[in-house]
Every structure is written in C-alpha cells, then in structure tokens.
Amino acid sequence: xxxxxxxxxxxxxxxxxxxxxxxxxxxDDAMYLPKVFDPAAHGYRVRYAIANILRDRAPHEGAFxxxxxxxxxxxxxxxxxxxxxxxxxxxxxxxxxxxxxxxEWLIRHPEYSKAFFH
Length: 118
Hints:
This protein is an all-alpha fold. It has helices at 6-12, 21-36, 42-55, 61-66, 73-86, 88-96, 102-108, 113-116.
C-alpha cells in the first residue's frame, strides 16, 4: 500500500481545474500567505493586495492588512495606483472597494488623483 505525502498531494492539486471553486480559491490564497509576511517580498504583497481588491474581499484579513504595514507601505500603494492607471478593471475595483480608502491614498499622492478620475 502506497503512502502519500500530504504536501505532494496538496501541491499536485494546485493546477487541477477540476477542483470546486471554493477549494481552488483556498489553494490559491494559501500560496501567497508565507510570502506576504516576508519583508523582502514587496512584489508578492502588491500582487496579493491587488488580487484581494479585485475580488473585493480578503479571505485572510491579517495578511491583507500586512501588505500595508511593512516598511515599504508607500511603495506598495504607489505600485497599486500605477497598475490601476494601466488596468481599467483594477481602477474600477479600487474606486468601488470597501477594503481600501482610495481617497486617502490619492490625498497622499495627488499626482495620481487627476488621472484616476478622468
């Protein structure tokens, strides 16, 4: 009888599109969590925050708020704003999101406020 390594079985499920949407979402969310807390993983925090903003929900609220609590908070916000200017879907999500305060972000970075609302 073969013994399966649970980690190997979990990792093999990541690309399996036959999983129900809820299970697939849990696998996707779990993939980001370790990197979100790494101080050197700026890019991961930006991508994780954007993914949550696009969904307009944070399955791991602590991880989401951590994206903006590290030393590079302003750089994360600026990267998200820059990407929002290039991506209409992200811009709409930023404007309608209850997870962030876009007005506060744009007050701190007025160079983006005109571009966001034109």
